[in-house]
C-alpha cells in the first residue's frame, strides 16, 4: 500500500525596489525670467524581481521643466511587479543672480543753458526706470536732484540705484550740465563835452558804469581811458569798459569825454 500527501510553498516578494535619485543641485535663473529650465538625470532603479516600468515623478517638475525661484523638492516613486514601492528625493534650488537693468539710462550728459535772469536751470529728463527678471525691486536715488528741478550752474551727478530681493544691484549714473551762455549787461554813461577848469588844461569828470549778470562773480575792467574822478586832458578821451562773468562771457561799452579849452 502506498500513501501520499502534498503541500504548497508560496514565495512572496516583500523586498522593496532600490531607487537612486540624482544629487541635489543649484541653478541660476534663466536670462530675463524668474525661473530655470532644469534637466536632470533620471533616477536609476533595480529590484530582486521585476520592475513595473521606470521610476515616475510623484512630486515636483519633470526633467526639462521650469523650476521656480527657491528650493523645490522632486520625488520619484518606483513599483515592482509585486507592488512593493520605494521613493527617493532630491532638491533643485534656483537662485536669482541676474542684475536689474536700467534700459533708459542716459548715455551722455544732459546739458541745458541757464534760465533767463537766473543762474540755475530747471532741467527735465526721463527718469531712469529699472526692470528685473524677478518682480520686486527697491529703488532709491542717491545724489539725485530729480527731474523738473532747479540745477545749479556747472556739473551735477545724478545717481539712481536699484536692488532686487536677491541683493543684486544696478546703478544708473549720468551728469546734468548747466551752462551760462548769457553775457553780462553793461551800461556806460553818455558821452560828454566839458570846459577845462579855470587856469588848467584839464577837467575833472566823475561817472558810473553799471553792470549786472544772471550769475555772481562778474568782473568789470577798464580797457581804455581814465577812471572816474580823473582829470581829463583837453581833447577827446575814449573810455572803454568790459564786463566778464564767471563763464567767460563778455560785454563792453564805451563813451567819450571831450574837454575844450575855452
Describe this entry's structure for a reader:
The relative contact order is 0.13. Helix content is 0%, strand content 50%. The chain has strands at residues 18-20, 25-28, 35-37, 44-46, 56-59, 66-68, 70-79, 85-95, 101-102, 110-113, 120-123, 130-131, 137-142, 149-152, 154-164, 169-179, 185-187, 192-195, 202-205, 210-212, 219-224, 230-233, 235-244, 250-260. The mean pLDDT is 94. It has 262 residues and is an all-beta fold.
Order of strands across the main sheet: 2-8-7-5
Secondary-structure element order, N to C: EEEEEEEEEEEEEEEEEEEEEEEE
Structural class determined from secondary elements? mainly beta
Helix tally equals 0
- Approximate shape: rod-shaped
Main sheet summary:
4 strands, mixed
Proportion in helices:
under 10%
Determine the N-to-C terminus distance. 183 Å
| DSSP strand count | 24
Mean pLDDT: 94
Low-confidence stretches: none
Radius of gyration: 45 Å
What fraction strand? over 45%
Comma- or semicolon-separated keywords:
24 strands, 4-stranded mixed β-sheet, rod-shaped, 262 residues, mainly beta
Short note summarizing the structure:
This protein is mainly β and 262 residues long.
Present the secondary structure layout.
Elements: E1 18-20, E2 25-28, E3 35-37, E4 44-46, E5 56-59, E6 66-68, E7 70-79, E8 85-95, E9 101-102, E10 110-113, E11 120-123, E12 130-131, E13 137-142, E14 149-152, E15 154-164, E16 169-179, E17 185-187, E18 192-195, E19 202-205, E20 210-212, E21 219-224, E22 230-233, E23 235-244, E24 250-260
Parallel strand pairs: 2-8, 10-16, 18-24
Antiparallel strand pairs: 1-4, 3-6, 5-7, 7-8, 9-12, 11-14, 13-15, 15-16, 17-20, 19-22, 21-23, 23-24
Amino acid at each position: 500500500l502506498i500513501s501520499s500527501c502534498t503541500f504548497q510553498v508560496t514565495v512572496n516578494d516583500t523586498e522593496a525596489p532600490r531607487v537612486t535619485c540624482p544629487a541635489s543641485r543649484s541653478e541660476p535663473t534663466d536670462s530675463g525670467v524668474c525661473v530655470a529650465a532644469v534637466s536632470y538625470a533620471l533616477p536609476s532603479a533595480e529590484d530582486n524581481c521585476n520592475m513595473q516600468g521606470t521610476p515616475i515623478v510623484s512630486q515636483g517638475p519633470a526633467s526639462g521643466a521650469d523650476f521656480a525661484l527657491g528650493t523645490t523638492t522632486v520625488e520619484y516613486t518606483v513599483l515592482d511587479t509585486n507592488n512593493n514601492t520605494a521613493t527617493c528625493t532630491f532638491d533643485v534650488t534656483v537662485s536669482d543672480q541676474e542684475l536689474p537693468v536700467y534700459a533708459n539710462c542716459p548715455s551722455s550728459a544732459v546739458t541745458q543753458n541757464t534760465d533767463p535772469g537766473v543762474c540755475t536751470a530747471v532741467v527735465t529728463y526721463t527718469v531712469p526706470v529699472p526692470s528685473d527678471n524677478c518682480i520686486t525691486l527697491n529703488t532709491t536715488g542717491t545724489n539725485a536732484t530729480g527731474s523738473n528741478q532747479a540745477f545749479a550752474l556747472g556739473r551735477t551727478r545724478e545717481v539712481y540705484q536699484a536692488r532686487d530681493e536677491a541683493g543684486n544691484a544696478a546703478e544708473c549714473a549720468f551728469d546734468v550740465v548747466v551752462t551760462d551762455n548769457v553775457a553780462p549787461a553793461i551800461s556806460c554813461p553818455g558821452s560828454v563835452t566839458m570846459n577845462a577848469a579855470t587856469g588848467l588844461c584839464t577837467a575833472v569828470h566823475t561817472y558810473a558804469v553799471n553792470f549786472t549778470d544772471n550769475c555772481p562773480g562778474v568782473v568789470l575792467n577798464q580797457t581804455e581811458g581814465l577812471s572816474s574822478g580823473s582829470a581829463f586832458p583837453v581833447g577827446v578821451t575814449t573810455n572803454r569798459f568790459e564786463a566778464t562773468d564767471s563763464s567767460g562771457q563778455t560785454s563792453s561799452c564805451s563813451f567819450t569825454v571831450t574837454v575844450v579849452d575855452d
